[in-house]
Specification:
It contains seven helices and six strands. It is α/β, with parallel strands linked by helices and about 170 residues long. It has a single domain, classed as Rossmann fold. The protein has a six-stranded parallel β-sheet with strand order 3-2-1-4-5-6, sandwiched between helices. Helix 6 links the parallel strand 4 and strand 5. Its EC number is 2.7.8.12.
Length: about 170
């Protein structure tokens, strides 16, 4: 993978199978993320779909296949979007400045970096009733009103009210 960090801020976007299965508005959620980057030339979206995502769509959510492939086509046409199918997730984690993700194993690993994370599912208020292995609840949440655009602007401005490190390690 080419190093993009030296030019622009890189937002790693992880899409998992679990959310595809359990979120009825999954395609809409993906579409909103991609559309947030349609007019941005100040940063890069590094999209890492789960390696088994397309085959899972084809076997479990066949109605998602066409809209998903259309989103892949749209994303592939953008100069500031890279679709990463590399085996090694750690390069993407190292090169990125922030993560956009649903709850996943990548999010758990990424939390150790101290870089900002925008969670596409859940809310910080769930802290009262749920238990996690890491501090999931101190991340930023789409459902708490932090949009992808707000999150990107925050990282680009070097701001992080939750005191995470916004520079790449």
């Amino acid at each position: 993978m080419e190093t993009y960090h030296s030019r622009k801020k890189v937002f790693l976007w992880n899409t998992s199978i679990e959310t595809m299965i359990n979120q009825p508005n999954w395609i809409e959620m993906l579409s909103k993320v991609i559309h947030s980057f349609l007019t941005r030339n100040d940063c890069i979206l590094l999209w890492r779909p789960h390696p088994l995502l397309l085959s899972s769509i084809r076997s479990m959510r066949t109605n998602y296949e066409k809209p998903y492939l259309n989103l892949i086509k749209t994303a592939s046409s953008l100069d500031n979007v890279i679709i990463d199918h590399e085996n090694d997730v750690y390069t993407a984690m190292r090169e990125s400045d922030a993560l956009i993700s649903d709850y996943s194993s990548i999010m758990i690993q990424y939390s150790i970096t101290g870089k900002p994370i925008l969670c596409l599912t859940g809310t910080s208020q769930m802290r009262e009733s749920k238990c996690n292995l890491f501090d999931y609840w101190s991340n930023y949440f789409l459902n708490d009103g932090v949009s992808v655009d707000i999150f990107c602007d925050m990282v680009l401005q070097g701001k992080d009210p939750k005191n995470r490190n916004v520079s790449s390690q």
